[in-house]
Amino acid sequence: MTPLLLGSEIYRGSSYGSWHPLRVPRVSTVLDLTRAMGWLPPERFRSSPRAKPAALTIWHTPDYVAALQAAEAEGTVDDATRARHGLGTNANPVFPEMYRRPATGAGASLLAGELLRDGGRIHSPGGGTHHGMPDRANGFCYLNDAVLALLSLRRNGVQRIAYVDIDAHHMDGVEHAFADDPDMLLVSTHEERRWPFTGALGDRGIGQTFNLPLPRGLNDSEFARVRDGLILPAVERFAPDAIVLQCGADAVEEDPLSRLTLSNNAHFDTLAALLPLAPRFLLLGGGGYNPWSVGRLWSGAWAVLAGREIPERLPPAAEAVLRGLTFEGNSRGKNPPGHWFTTIRDTPREGAVRSDVTDRIAHLAARIGAMPRAG
Ligand SMILES: [Zn+2]
Which of 57, 81, 107, 145 could form a disulfide with 49 if both were Cys (CB 3.0 to 4.6 A apart)? Predict the structure, then answer.
């Protein structure tokens, strides 16, 4: 039955607006590229259902869900709705699929919780909207499908869950939901002094929450220390029944929204190391605002999840998918380097490991041994 990739055609051609970072194609690239690679035969793909409004209210407030639906239907919001629910803002604008698109990502997450009941691996590149709040849109996220995935796993009998978030931004919505839950391990690595400005090193809640802010210019060697010194030991000690990895693609060098400078090897290697640590695995997307780096990263992550080999040089059909992308309104789109078309795996970006980074890892690692073990 698994691995499965949950996707939808609703993402194709959908845009938050011509000026918004989420004007770029993402999930559609993953579907096209993985199919061109021969990695996504029909039996590995499932079209994501759209979540019913009532299903969203296991975490979101009924008032908010109704306001979101109404905003899509009417194509506008009033000032009271904007103030109360964060809809119709610069970050979360009114756009044609503003309810159906996030409800599809939420539908994938709710379905994943059911499908993983007895084990398996699922990739939902349209998921990972970790900033959504119960009663308001936040940080490009209208709903919080990551929270819904965790709740769905719980409803399907999966108690101890490790949520690992390697997006460039802090997991504020997920932390809001689960920071005090003793059967949830939350680990977030994110760029320091960047929106939403939460997730300081000492922030931990009552449960098992680990926040690691990271400095600008973070390289692969430094992230390998984060993986081996914090992420893997914490997950191993916690011994979860399921792992959810939010694999935002915005911490790579090519992304226009962060100053972290990883290669996608950091993501692939972290994913590969986490896979054996639980019988159930859900891989979510997240941020990612350069159409080439996000499409290559999530396609490569699917290859890792599904046990496919990533070739050095892509076959012509896959190269054609990448050559067909454009990046309007960004200087990086004017002269894309050749390897954005011909490869999925980046050249590693190794470098010196700063003591600033290792000190923070050590600070958090000291808490790992104090976590209660399973059972
Ligand atoms: Zn992000």
Answer: 107
Q: 132 to each of 19, 175, 242, how far by Cα in Å?
A: 21, 11, 22
11-36 residues labelled b (16+ CB within 10 A) or e (exposed): beebbbeeebbbbbbbbbbbbbbbbb
Q: 128 is written with which tokens?
A: 């990972």
Cα(105) to centroid(ligand 1), Å? 16
Percent share of the chain, pLDDT over 70: 99
Residues that are catalytic: 131
Positive/negative CA dihedral, 36, 38, 39, 41: positive
Q: How far is the CA of 192 from the centre of ligand 1 (A)?
A: 12
Q: What percent of the chain has pLDDT over 90?
A: 94
Separation of CA 314 and ligand 1 centre (Å): 27
Q: Which domains are seen in the chain, by residue range?
A: 4-368 (3.40.800.20)
Which tens digit of pLDDT belongs to each residue from 317-357? Answer: 999 999 999 998 888 888 899 999 999 999 999 999 999 99
